[in-house]
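Hi! If you just cloned this repository, the fastest way to understand the data is to look at a raw example. We've pasted two of them here, unedited. The first protein comes first, obviously.
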Amino acid sequence: MTIFRDLSILWSLFHILILFMLLYRSRYPKKKTFLLTGIVMTPLILINLFGFILYGSGVMGKVFLLTCTLPSMLFFWIVSKDKKGRFFFTFCLADTVALWIIAVTNVLDYYLGGEKYILMFIGRLVLFPLLEWLAVRYLRKPYMELQKSVANGWGIFAGMTAVYYMLLAVMANFPKLITQRPQELPAFILILILMPLTYATIFSAMYRQLLLYRRQQNDRMWQEQKAQLESRLENQQRIRKLRHDMKTHVVTLSGLLNAGNTQEATAYLNRVRQETEALQGSFCANLYLNTVFSHYFQKMQELGTELRLDIQVGEETLPHMELCRIVSNGLENAYEALQKIPEVQREASVQIKYSREYLVIRIKNRCPDGFTVERGIFPKSDKEEAGHGFGLEIVCETAEKLGGEAWCYTENGSFILDVMVRVQHTISEAGG
């Protein structure tokens, strides 16, 4: 009957792998991730399976941490996108939940199945797929979002999970199998009951963090929309004022022309035209980006600096909400930085152009002396008020949402934010 035990071990090892792959974030595309996982993990699983067959669960249970857990953790750490608390919590979570199922089915088979391994095999055959279905149905999507959006607080949860894994492994196997220590079985059962309750507490706390993050994101979006609407209102008021002042402009131009001052009249007319275009937001053919540029053009003027623009987009269909979010958060970051340096040093520019299937956005501004940022590291805002510190993070997340990426760095006294977003399909649809 040991065939049922051996099959249940092989089944368990493969499903531990599946459960972890459902929850972690790889740094590579899916195809490459599966290929690397198959190359590394298949021999490791087979080696441990033969170990269980040759030496039994008593021996392998004591060395399983060294023969399987640590080597697999090292491999997945290398291919994982996350390297700190998020990775270790996810890895320990998958291993601990799987170890919980293995321990429960082992105890039930010993006391209820007569140690014939049939109950163990059936239990694992049902519980692992059920666990994976629950993970896909209820956990995977919010958990992936949580890993993406919440950067802090994972370390303590990873530590708790690692302690639970060690506690289960020790209680189940040392100094001998728990089924051979009936006097310790009540304590072991209490640990098995306590573990799901602890995980429920952890996920409840994490979910509250996710809801808080979503609320902050929504508040930020509402603030952006409010700023854009206020910008349009201000422009309308300036346009009405300009129309009211048109009589004065006509009188002035008439006076200059009657006096024969043609050059002065032309210069005066050009200033009026530039002011009118600025108020109307004539920066590019994209109506939505115009609103953002118009708002920050006025804000930069208030700082005594000009916002230089090189916008090479037309009227083609673009993901305007996401692009406006990227540009507005990038320019808000530039505006905050320029406030900290002398007016004579203030410079800011935006460049938007195409590079194959990508739309490339570069926002550049002068920064305070001594301020340095390494490539790829997003600096935190030093403001204490609520709602600050999310701008560059929002840029990064929005770029990833569009199939691109964002990074920033300092160079020659300037802070540079580069964003690449994939827009090939959108352009093709617009062209067709």
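Ok, and the second one:
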Amino acid sequence: MNTPKVRFKDFTEDWKIIKLDSLISFNNGINAEKDSYGHGRKFINVLDILNNNFIKYNDIIGSVSVSEKIEETNKVEYGDLLFLRSSETREDVGKSSVYLDEDEFALFGGFVIRGKKQVDYHPYFLKLNLESSKVRNQISSKAGGSTRFNVSQSILSSIEISIPSQNEQRKIADFIGHFDKRLQLQQEKIDLLKEQKKGYMQKIFSWGLRFKDENGLEYPKWEQKKIADIATVTMGQSPNSDAYSINPEDTVLIQGNADLKNGKIIPRIYTSEITKTCEENDIILTVRAPVGMVAKSNINACIGRGVCAIKADDFLYYYLEFYNNTSKWDRLSQGSTFESVNSNDIKSIIVPEPNVKEKKKISQFLNILNKKVELEEKKLEGLLNQKQAFMQQMFI
């Protein structure tokens, strides 16, 4: 029988197995001239798909101005699906989102494949279905590439999905949608805490908020030192090859900004030895675009060319986080688009150096704020796990 493990009452019929191209037709997006971007109609691109559970017109970041003829053939309308054509990781290639704005149509970019709705289906159910492990495995296994993975219209057309009646589609979509609302509220709570932390860091590092000693007096004026004077900086090195594996005996590698998500280390497993390493509690800093992302390492690992490791205390970690939040890295590039920094760039950065006792108080205060964020992130992770558990049981 072609049925999921968990179903709503009164639904007993087998799900139908169909190919994706029986529901939607596929097209690649717009590649316009450089001066066409930044104005005109909203324009769906990679980040819009990755950052949104579903997309509405006002959520879209970019815009493009093209002729009415090009607009007409590249419309994204209610119920259309959007897919990532290309990704650095096999896990992300072919990921999708759904357009749910009934009032405005959008356009879509060349790194995106549009799935234009051809027959009736519940749009959000189809999007959820495309997230199921069975469908994702089909897409990722068919993706071509080695260092960068790609899917085509023909690959997406060949994907098989199982689909129930529209009534059951709606029930499932509504049920999972309740989880999405809870997840959104939890994420908003986390974002608020992060903004509060940023506000406190702004006050602390601009001397608008000072801590007092045991006698209620201010600590001495902060000194200014180069990072080279207070920390050890180790630059990563290029791997011998691009061969990744899942063998637990292979080397753990922190390679670049793709491995630092929301201040957390997401290491890769690598098959070749690298001599440059970091240790637990080292600061990991990205040295290639986007430069300046920071995280505390929770593992001993090798470091690739995209990052460096800094041995220092928590105070410097928080200052570098503040430094990145305020875009101070741009100053090193004299206003140009910033691509990379070298060891001397990092070592020469002037950082504040408070009295040891005040530094400890500042670090303890910011650690408390960090732990509040981490607690709420664990709640978010729990909700995500619940959603995924239901998804595994309610989809085939």
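That's it. A detail worth noticing about the second one: The chain has a mean pLDDT of 89.
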